[in-house]
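Q: Could you write out the predicted structure for this multi-component system? I'm mainly interested in how the pieces pack against one another.
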Amino acid sequence: MTKLFPTQEVGSLAKPAWLLKGVRGTKLSAEDRADLDYWAGRLEIEGVEELRRLLHSNGEPSDAAKAALRDWAALFAIRLEEAAGLDVVYDGEARRVEMYEYPIRRIDGFQFYGHVRSFDNRYYRKAAVVDRVALREPFHLDELGFVKRQARRPVKIPVTGPYTLADWSFNEYYLRQSAGIADLRKRNYEAKRRFTLDLATEVLRPTLQALVDVGADWIQIDEPAAATHPEEVPILVEAFNAATEDVQARISIHICYSDYRALYPHILGMRVEMLTLEFKNTGDYNIVTIFKEFGDTRAIGLGVLDVHSDVIETPEEVKTKILQAVEILGGPERIWVNPDCGLRTRTWDVAFAKLQNMVEGARLAREAVQAK
Amino acid sequence: MAFAHLTGIFPRSEELIASTRAFERGRLDAAALRRQAEEESARLVALQAEWGLDYITDGLLRWQDLLRPLAEELPGVHAGPVTRWFDNNSFYRRPVIEARLRPVGEAALRWTAREPLKGRLWKAILPTPWAFAALSEDRAYEDVDALLRDVAEVLRAEAASLQAAGCRYIQFSDPVLVNRRSDGVLSRAQKALGRVVEGLTVRTALYTFFGDAVPVLDVLLDAPVHEVGFDLFATDVERLNGRAGSKGLLLGALDGRNSLLEDAAETAATVRRVADRLHAESVTVVPSCDLEFLPWEVAVAKGRRLAEVKRLVG
């Protein structure tokens, strides 16, 4: 993209109540229906009568009806991102339960035991790898096909990376395979490496290649766990390179809520075009200096929206942050602009307003740079 | 002589998890949730006794994290932003200290299911003063030593109230000492812990986890408590070098963060090897950390395995 400061989505959006209730077969409230009507009008979505008919059907919806509801939700999300003015869009991950469980349920070798706590009274299902991992069939293909057919802007598909899938799972099979190593710390490390590399070569690589075969031009590998264990960054890099080997598409990585310093210098060996990172939440744009300090010349996806706050960043604030990064990096060419992470914890009203201001802030920054 | 007990928060059962969710959605009241947590504590107490653990905990089922009772109960402190809990995919609420701390005395006790512990040798768990101070956001003190002094007074009152309530063993948990080392920290942390345990007659322990204990081993072995311990899954065991002597060792030999059930014989051999290396007279086999990182059924299997390892260590 030749435009300065192009804007991109980076993760999931909140799932509309009409989708969640619709797939459960639960009756919509007047508020849910009003919300649907409001966004259908605002995003100028045509043929919504069909969606209303689907939602008014009684009882548990058929699989075909559920799939149709998810198509509608994906369409709404695509249109929201387009209406906000983003240069690169996706579907807000409308079909995915979330970024861990969705792919894990499509890979052989895992077993779900039960819930573990995330914090307070929030929990998530955590799987154990109990056998060697094997891909059942490449995933996200239909999803990408739908987005490609509907989107009026360039598309980037997010896929959860091998290191995060491994890090968020219990490791049984590979630990057994590493039982010959007496030192427990070294055993855990080697087992993690084998697990992650198998996910990279046996699951991710064929999936990414299949995505390219159905038209993926740009794939974003999501690795939120990247810097959780600084000593394992070499595993992250090795697995990333193995997963993306011979994948003929633009490849970027998204890492959030991490100590980015812990990634260097190993991440310099990662074959990736762009690092999309969270900056707004940290409040410390000096993190951009890491790029300069380590001579990292790759593109940077600059997080400028705090996804955990309802405060709407102003275009001026966004512009200032972009120009700050330009100053540190010594030029504007390799800066993309995005939210810190997915906006799924915000309402669509808040997410839309934030994205609109982000796009406007990027335009102001562009003007400022070009005026010089 | 070998012993075994738990070292932290036990996971909630699927039933209790469902109830906490119902509570969040307004479908269950606080009293009913509390009753259910206490019933589950009672079952867990019975399980630990059946396994043959030497000190019993209530499982800390109401604790949302290690710091929460103090964050909720101390005047001028509140449970603040959700913050990553070390290198885990789980989070705690960082306590925000808005005013000078005053001891309240029974914060931890109020968060303990005491009824099922009656007549048992029971164990309580508190953060060390250093862990609480380092993991909080300080908006009231400008001086870390002053903060540490006041946190020590708070914890001293907590420990005293637990002892008065019949608790026989207090473990002070500290993942910070082995993770965020900086100059001068160790002696200050030691001094603050010394103040907390001053005058206590119960058995006391300092337990570290999530980090390598090798660089702080000398300080651990010199800590003003009866027993010290560390996480064997995070420690470079081959570099351990010291003399525990009469100080008991708590060895985190069952991985609290992975579901694979350890081989009992191999784990017992590891425990013996480390105990011999440090010339320990007494050793306690413990999970490497809280078991709350595991689903309930897996944690129960680990608890049972803990007792088997203890028997094999002898």
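A: Regarding packing and overall arrangement: The two ends of chain B are 6 Å apart (CA to CA).
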